[in-house]
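Sequence in, structure out.
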Amino acid sequence: MKCYSTALLIYFLSFSCNNDSLKENNEVSSPKPLSRAELFNCDYAKCKARSNILYKQYTTHPDSITKQTLINNIRDSLFACWYGTAWDFNGITEEPGKGKIACGYFVTTILRDMGIPLKRYKHAQMASEEMINAICLKNNISRYVNEDIPSFVEKIKAKGAGLYIAGLDFHTGFILNDGYEVYFVHSNYAGKKVVMSEIAVESGVLATSKKIVTGKII
């Protein structure tokens, strides 16, 4: 845990899921996602409850403001709470920061905690493209084969803010376009082997995959 000055500590705590200002934070788009360190007081149960409410609002009234609020909430709460949680091929933890989690279980846990009905174990154990086909509508699925990552990222940017399941050759995670930047959020089997958010165009894991399948969630 890093040490912060008093001023910075107050700033970071203002984004905590325990703080009522989270609502205001989610309603104003921020160019940079918060790190796990910045959300060290995260109340994950409260984050899940809020995400469920926002997801229901979005599915009922899918306007741009509701969509951006939901995306920001996922970026700054559900995802951020998981950062630093250890990856393991057999990891199935449901609690951020405790135990280990495999890439597929990370995806299905986030989706379930957003409020999307699915079979967490069954879908997590599928090949990534099979999982996307099972969860996403056919017209929300796109396939990119032998495409360089900068080109892929530009196509995602052109679609506007959104959240996608990303299926790679041997891996899965999320592509998040928050309207400012495109990120690859995943339980990373490489490097530090933890859940992390990477700027997509800089991700070595994305670059090594010959095929990327995306299934739009938001």
